[in-house]
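Incident review: delayed structure delivery

Summary: a single-chain prediction request sat in the queue longer than the usual turnaround. Root cause was a stuck worker, restarted by the on-call engineer. No data loss occurred. The affected request and its eventual output are reproduced below so the record is complete for anyone auditing the incident later.

Affected input:
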Amino acid sequence: MAEINLEQLTTEETSHYDNLDKMSVKEILEGINNEDKTVPYAVEKAIPQIEALVSQIVPRMKEGGRLFYIGAGTSGRLGVVDASECPPTFGVPFDLVVGLIAGGDGAIRKAVENAEDDIEQAWKDLMEYDVNELDTLVGIAASGRTPYVIGGLNKARENGLLTGSISCNSDSEISQAAEYPIEAIPGPEFVTGSTRMKSGTAQKLILNMISTSVMIQLGRVRGNRMVDMQLSNNKLVVRAENMVMKELGIEREEAEALLQVHGSVRASVDAYRAKH
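Output delivered after worker restart:
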């Protein structure tokens, strides 16, 4: 890897605020909020890049491909969160969208020393899933220079996978490694270098956009409703009943009975309409 020069990274630039330790709570909160307001605009500028990546992911997934995220630290955790929320939200198999974090699942809760510096490990982690040319790998790194992510992207690209990246610095190393890089540049953090803040928010917004737009394109949303969501708790059951009632113009008791038989909003609505 090239020698680290943090001074060249936007994510490492000095905060616009100083003497944070002398601020009141209100001043701290207002400062953080003012900085956070810049994030959506940074993401907006990256929409063409996000569109380009999503447009390549969808046809591959329609042919049976999967979506993988890799990252370290906050970036890795955000990928794991986005992937883990796809099955309950969209009713897809748990292994259709997969988040991998440097250091393994234990690193979700507790940092694993030097895990992000292993340039070979990401590909080893991916090989456990028998990845192929229909699969997509998205590397996530606020700095854009995490060896774990760069190594995974390089190997994936060599082996025919579609590759994308999400970073918060311009012309980063992971952008060079990926075919479809996404760069959202929210600028210096409120606490200098703390990329779990604005950069993390930008990454989360982009991940939301990628997974949601992909799932809509795959037919996992009907109208504006999560018709394939898993009915895994009482709140979601009631939400599903409400959707069925509104869609079919029936009472709750009948909606509840349909869901008990068919297991999802989509199946319940389709079965009812097939009989009426």
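Verification: The chain has a mean pLDDT of 94.
Action items: add queue-age alerting; document worker restart procedure.
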